Amino acid sequence: MRKLLTGNEAIARGAWEAGVKYASAYPGTPSTEILETTALYVDDILAEWAPNEKVAIEAVIGASFAGARTFAAMKHVGVNVAADPLFTFSYTGVNGGMVLISADEPGYHSSQNEQDNRNYAKFAKIPMLEPSDSQESKDMMKSAFSISEKYNTPVLLRMTTRVCHSKSIVECGERDEVGIMEYTKSLDKFPIPAFVGGMRARVEERQVLLKDFSNQTELNFFEWNDCQVGVIASGACYKYAKEVFGDTVSYLKLGFTNPLPDEKIREFCSKVEKVYVIEEVDPYIEEVVRILGFDCFGKNLFPNTGEMTPDTIRKAIYGKTFDHVETEASKVVPRPPILCAGCPHRGFFVGLKNRKNIVVASDIGCYSLGFADPYKVGDWCVCMGASMSSGHGAQQVFDMVENSNKRVVSILGDSTFLHSGMNSLLDVVYNGSKTVNVILDNRITGMTGHQENPASGYTLQGKKTKEINLEKLVRALGFEHVMVINPNDITAVQHALDWALSLDEASVIITRWPCVLKTLSTEDKNEFKEVFKNKCTVLEEKCTGCRACIRTGCPALFLDKANKKVSIDVNSCVGCEVCLQVCKLDAIVKVGV
Amino acid sequence: MTKSILLVGVGGQGTILASKLLTTGLMEAGYDVKMSEIHGMSQRGGSVSSQIRYGNRVESPVIEIGGADILVSFEKMEALRWLKYLKPTGKVVVNNYEINSMPILSGRVDYPAGILEELSSKVDTTVIDAARIATELGNFKVMNVIILGVIIKSMGLTEINWEAIIRENVKPQFVELNWRALNAGMNLV
Ligand SMILES: Cc1ncc(C[n+]2csc(CCOP(=O)(O)OP(=O)(O)O)c2C)c(N)n1
């Protein structure tokens, strides 16, 4: 059966065909749809969202020990969070096969950095596979499980955005019901110092065997054409190179990239006159080519940042891209992402903006967008969960400065709070700074496309489950000053901030209103009555075109410059009333629909 | 010969459904097909693209600068933003529909004037008014399927059984509406 699948869908299909029983992940672009698609195989695979990537991989490690084929998926920075268990799991080895999927982002389309996770495979001494399209994604997923079980090791399957999110045709197969291996207790799984030595030695022995495998496997293959130029590439770069050179050059296509196949590289480099190593981000393959004593064109010719798309290769080699039509740049205005019409973060930002002596420690989520026009709310953001801890550290230092009256407001979302913000909030209460901590609870993991989380009341596979009560949780952590508000009520937001800033101790404000793009649950519909059912409209005779409403940054509003009146797009307005509250002339009213 | 269709617009405009129907149709017609889309951050009202390539054998899923046979823009200014991806001999289909981006909304700059003139002076340009037709059909959201109709006609793909593709991929109560929208689009060019 042939299907048109994204790389992410193909990974899920491969997992199903390989007999996977259990999978866990935390969402993150471009990896998210891997688990979302796996979750659809509800009769055969138990698929779960974990609160964060470390927990996801740990759950999967347990599943492997217990004997199931299992995998975890995450974006590149997620592997940083999961690195601690990963490195030791390399020592203990598996029982049921285990695959870790790392979805990297050359070109950082939706990420805070551009790290190259191929380095993790080398660092953790585990085998790595790199698919170049959807068919390979599916096939390599299956190979990865055999390799994992044969060599007693976790396997890193490294994807990139274009492999994850591009569709191509996949020949699908049937499920191989491998079952669950028997569990036997073994000290091999107990890395206390007394046993580490043996484990460490086995990792090195495994490396030797894996290098042999790398030199033999068909996952690394030659395509001989003219030998004047030879291209070495893996992943999406192989397809890009083929687009540019077609059959005019020879290729060494690498699918198994840790350890790299030294013999095959030697053979290839000896037979071609000029070697191009085409890879995104780091000179991972190039370094080995050079260590083996061959000169090549690598990062001295191709960029070390961004995607290695065909035009980039063309430009590097021939000095120019295809002919194209130039336009006047001034005619194109930037279009940065923005908060949606009806986004509950908007009311909070409108209530917070323009306050004096406030430093805002922000975090990763839709609310990161608060840093930009027209709110300018956000001094920094680092990584998920860092707002409350970095805010705490900053407040401690501001307090050392004489006559400083700076106050830190730390903000993050519900999913980010439960990911790792909770630990950060513990630091605040334990070490006692006076930060204002805000959980922007929009009842879902918004930025990555609406995944359930422990506070949303449902699991990935749609089961009703315990819903974490954030207010009770922060009170249990030891906070006495806690307030829950509706962020669409600007007066309530301002009142809560005034209250929190009047205190000499730390406080927590929880804003609670659903994301406008969330598919509402029965509980949401009961709690948030009439939500998103109304529209706001402008009374033309009262509007003077003063722009106060426009400055809420809502994309549903626009000013007609000719007649100096604002109008509201009925197709996008959901009646959140933020604009209505900032209009001093009562020119905006609510209408039921 | 590989053909490349570049669909651009603003996050939330429905480029993803249009590209899904298109690629499904192309595969069923026996082509090798690749499609690339960036999900994530840009879907929050940013500039988005779906890149579709088909032929006997397709390597890269992304369209390079100067590589698209047709550039179809769901929004006026986006056509200009992506124009460099079009072959100089390629066609532009532009929906005469404006969505203000944040610098425009906040009043710092105006929505640029003269875009259609600029496009027409440089490349083969067809202007359509999918928003008006969608409203006439009774549902603003079918703008994307109207535009799909334009692509199908422009690329000479009318032989494919699009009615069946819509039936397989759209909720039953919307099949009729989408089929009418697709035909309305095909009749525009
Ligand atoms: C370690 C890590 N994992 C995952 C991500 C991807 N990611 C970015 S924002 C986000 C979720 C944000 O959800 P929430 O905190 O609820 O805020 P919202 O977007 O709903 O406002 C995720 C998972 C990341 N950037 N870093």
Throw out a few tags for this protein:
heterodimer, A: 593 residues, alpha/beta, Rossmann fold, 4 domains, 7-stranded mixed sheet, 36% helix, 18% strand, globular, B: 189 residues, Pyruvate-ferredoxin Oxidoreductase, domain 3, 6-stranded mixed sheet, 6 strands, binds thiamine diphosphate
Short description:
The complex is a heterodimer of chains A (593) and B (189). Chain A is 36% helix and 18% strand.
Overall pLDDT confidence of chain B: 93
Give the neighbour order of strands across the main sheet of chain B.
2-3-1-4-5-6
CATH class of chain B: Alpha Beta
How many helices of chain A? The count is 19
> What pair of chains forms the biggest interface?
A-B, 63 and 61 residues
Order of helices and strands of chain B: EHEEEHEHHEHHHH
Helix content of chain B: 25-40%
What does this 3D model show about the protein?
The complex is a heterodimer of chains A (593) and B (189). With 593 residues, chain A is α/β, with parallel strands linked by helices. Helix content of chain A is 36%, strand content 18%. Chain A has 19 helices and 22 strands. In chain A, strands 3-2-4-5-7-6-12 form a seven-stranded mixed beta sheet, sandwiched between helices. In chain A, strands 14-15-16-18-17 form a five-stranded parallel beta sheet, with helices on both faces. Chain B is of the alpha/beta class. Chain B has a single domain (3-100, 112-186), classed as Pyruvate-ferredoxin Oxidoreductase, domain 3 (3-Layer(aba) Sandwich). In chain B, strands 2-3-1-4-5-6 form a six-stranded mixed beta sheet, with helices on both faces. In chain B, α6 crosses α8 and α7 packs antiparallel against α8 (172-186). The longest helix of chain B is centred in the C-terminal third of the chain and has 15 residues, at 172-186. Classes of the chains: A alpha/beta (593), B alpha/beta (189). β8 of chain A pairs antiparallel with β2 (32-37) of chain B. The complex binds thiamine diphosphate. Residues 26-28, 53, 75, 77-78, 81, 364-367, 384, 412-416, 440, 442, 445-448, 515 of chain A line the site of thiamine diphosphate.
